[in-house]
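User: I'm preparing a small set of examples for a lab meeting where we compare how different chains pack in three dimensions. I only have the primary sequence for this one, and I'd like the structure in token form so I can line it up with the others. Please keep the answer compact; I'll paste it straight into my notes.
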Amino acid sequence: MNDSNENKDLLDALNSVSEVNIGDVVSGEVLAIDDDKQLIVGIEGTGVEGVVPQRELSANQSVDDFKPGDTLDLVVTSKIGNDKEGGSYLLSSRRLEARKVWTELAQKAENEETIKAPVTQVVKGGLVVDAGVRGFIPASMISDRFVEDLNQFKGQDLELKIVEIDPASNRLILSHKAIVQKEKAENRAKLMDTIKEGDVMEGTVARLTNFGAFVDLGGVDGLVHVSEISYERVAKPSDVLKVGEKVTVKVLAVDFDRDRISLSIKQTLPQPWDGIEDKAPEGSILEGTVKRLADFGAFVEVFPGVEGLVHISQISYEHVDTPADKLSVGDKVQVKVLSVDPERRRLALSIKALLPEPENNNKPAAKKHSSAHVADNSTQNAPEEETGFTLGDIIGKDLSSSDQD
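Assistant: Understood. Below is the structure token output for the 405-residue chain.
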């Protein structure tokens, strides 16, 4: 009877032993720590032992954290040795955690949920993130614009959309661009509902072209035409603006049908002619730059956006056929302010007034026939330059008037 009971107990024990298969999730009890710093564990319900090297523990675990009798969940990754040699199994808690992460990520992808993950590495062609498992963001999926320097994202936590997931090949492709586009679409809708002509707003320079600068207002880009960047003449927007620069802009016009916004930077700046009487009082001496040449004189910029006229008669004491004989665009010149007209935004300037007067200019003047012959700008040698009439025309007209008297 006793032999019968013992045989039955042995048979029950053998039947209760589970077979171990690669990929099984098992519970293991720590039996010992060997000389190679590996956990020797007994696989529950099998009577079989397994080995857990340090590399197969989770990132926050160490072999030294365990003692005999501790239990942990593990996944069977491979067979070590063979049955004749009493083989055991390679076990891993790290891969078990990764398996759980893959399952969670697959569920999020199915539900179209986003995840947040820190950027751990910048590699050729994109960014590597830690999503519990290794994830990759291709450069084309980082932003809705070209990003020249990917290093700016290192260490940042990014919200990401799962584009492709394949746990079997450890492949996880993510996109931050999709998040950026969604946020901008939402912000665009809000902004277009509230924006109006005349609004003054803060923005960020997003792109530069030859004809202007596109400024991001928070989901909507507006265009600052090159003529609206500064009161000074701007040849290229890149001469005065940089991508990423914060700017204050004024809304000039909104085209709701085409989602286009016209902006101005210069109209948020002080008007160049404001206080011109104090900045350039009559008789003051200023330095300026020749901006334009005309047949009748030269336009000289003395303050940003403020140009004055040096009449051809005020360029030199010498006779000047054309301003280009004496001046070139870009020349730096000293000028004296002859008159200021703030209302008409006119400034009369003179270069000649700052030059030494030639000695032969002190000769006695010819006999004057009428007080009407005196020119406003005292150019006795060449009255035709000021009035458009020759000396003979003026004298002839006076004599004709005298005869009639």
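A couple of notes for your slides: Residues 10-17, 365-405 have pLDDT under 50 and may be disordered. Helices lie at 2-16, 94-110, 177-194, 276-279, 383-387, 391-404.

User: Perfect, thanks.
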